[in-house]
Amino acid sequence: MRYFEAFRGPFYYFLFITLIGCASVSRVLNPEKGLYEALLRPLPKWQKEVRRAEKWHEDVIQQYAPTANLAMQKHAENIARRVAAVAKIPVPVKVTVLKGDDLNAFTIGGGFIYIFEGLMNLMNNDDELALVIAHELAHCSAGHVGSWTWYSLRERIRPQGRPSFDVAIREEKYEYKGKRYWEVYLDAPSPEKAVDIIVSYITPIFQRWEEREADILGAYYAYKAAYDLNRGIECFRRIAREEAELRRRALEELQPLHLHLKDAFKDYAQAKKQAIENPFDYHYLLEANTYLKKFLKIKDEYLSCLYKWRDAIFEVPVWFRSHPPISQRVSYLKETLRALERNSINAASTKEVRYVLEVCGLIERGLPFSEKQAR
């Protein structure tokens, strides 16, 4: 059955995003037509990408050893071959499973895809794995890889370090018109801010619009390859639930400590102010030191809790966390599925989803992209 049969009438196109730092000149000059031209780029351009990827592949293999699990490797190859046939990628697709527990996958373009054993083991079924592979193939077919190099990607696969936090009392003393003044404030991240920093710490090598495009296009490929897209999306739902639960538990534990920290700071600030205003009264100085010790103890407890939850949240699979927020991914993947099942892009409200699927529909039927109508 041919999809999008309903669109034999007039077509409507959407300029939904400003494409910056694009992989090809056409995406800068003709942003509406960029995906259409990328998907139909000629074989010589593909072959150029393959030659570049072949050089990078040698470095990838030096960095990460291929899996010794031949059955796992063969399984990934079979799924990649099935998806690539639907995507009509004109060059051989080379998928390599890499040793390691990393929950990640990436591509260097030219049909070269890499999946770590850890992410392979996380997948519950072929539908989930097909969606991962289709996403990486979508990066290749949409020409996203032209704006970076393997060497820049290499630094992002295994992030160096994790976010650090500090809690401190900032104070300033000064004189004005013969009077002494003292200003003090608490410098500490709120639980909400700290968790947001942790979740967003890893930045993707691709831009957000590229990741959305690859998600939607990859979902289209997986669906056309007869994989169950609803079951495939479950891996995103599963990780989204895990991340949401970790966030909830982190805030539940951090918020009382943060309130305790602010109360301890307030007590210290009041006692210190009394000590400054009464410099010859030793009692106020002792009281201020007592409250400072109490504050420092609570500070250590708060920081310890922050780092505990930082490490826990960092266990969310990198492949999911280094893309747009998981909840957003689930939302537009569900829209993509709904539009495909109903054979109508009108079933999707998100412009990105409508745009990608309409381009796919045009290419499937061999129709031209009308720039006049696109405007």
Provide the descriptors you would attach to this structure in a database record.
two-stranded antiparallel sheet; mainly alpha; disordered N terminus; single chain; elongated; 5 strands; 375 residues
Question: Can you give a write-up of this model?
Answer:
The protein starts with 24 loop residues before the first helix and ends with a helix. A hairpin with a 2-residue loop joins strand 2 (105-109) and strand 3 (112-116). A 3-stranded mixed beta sheet has the order 1-3-2. The relative contact order is 0.14. It has helices at residues 25-29, 34-39, 43-63, 70-87, 117-122, 126-141, 150-157, 191-199, 208-224, 229-277, 282-313, 318-321, 326-342, 351-365, 371-374; strands at 94-98, 105-109, 112-116, 168-176, 179-187. The longest helix has 49 residues, at 229-277. The protein is elongated and about 90 Å long. With 375 residues, it is mainly α. Helices cover 61% and strands 9% of the residues. The chain is built from 15 helices and 5 strands. Mean pLDDT is 85; it is low at 1-26.
Strand content: 5-15%
Strand order of the largest sheet: 1-3-2
Taking pLDDT < 50 over at least 5 consecutive residues as the criterion, the unreliable ranges are 1-26
Mean pLDDT level: 85
List how many beta strands DSSP finds: 5
Number of helical stretches of at least 4 residues: 15
Termini gap:
31 Å
Query: Which structural category fits the helices and strands?
Result: mainly alpha
Which geometry do the CA atoms define?
elongated
Radius of gyration: 27 Å
Helix-strand pattern: HHHHEEEHHHEEHHHHHHHH
Kindly state the percentage of residues in helix.
Answer: 55-70%
Largest sheet: 3 strands, mixed
